[in-house]
Amino acid sequence: YVGSVIYCLFFHPLAKYPGPFLAKFSVWPSYYHTTAGNRQIWIWQCHQTYGPIFRSGPNSLLFNSPEANRAIYEAKSNVKKDSLYLAFTLKVGALNTLNSNHAEHARKRRILNAAFSDKALRTSEPYVIQHVDRWCQLLVDGAGHEWSQPRDMAEWSDYLVFDILGMPVLPLLRVQDQQSLNRFCDARI
Fold this sequence. Notes:
Layout: H1 2-11, H2 28-36, H3 39-50, E1 53-57, E2 60-63, H4 66-73, H5 102-113, H6 118-140, H7 153-169, H8 171-176, H9 183-186
Antiparallel strand pairs: 1-2
Helix pairs in contact: 6-7
């Protein structure tokens, strides 16, 4: 065990990255904060202390920057997908964008790239903000200074997602229904 600790501290390929001392050779800090229910706070504190990249375990780094997101997830990245994604199959042998082989994934990604380009996302941002603002208004409508009635947030989130995803598909309804952006939520009030 001492040999593996020395290896992780000084000779491991990730040894040059900063992070909590115990996390450099053990997963216990991450495990502890996960079971304590405050792992997200621990990660935030580590990013504040160690910067946008820190070593969160013997074999793992956590990133907090747009550049890292692009470097990891862009089409030409040199990152291998973990076998964990194979758990997301509905039936054996069925391929989706998460568990497909390289050629099949490239084909599917070419189709989806146009919808998720920076330009497409920036174009749809005002509409998404408009729907989220209206959704928030509907949630607190009539509450005043008192607590509002309990709501099934899973159902209300479904309404929001339906309205946002229906935006590009149902432009005529959006034009005809300018008074009520969240027409499905309004019926519930």
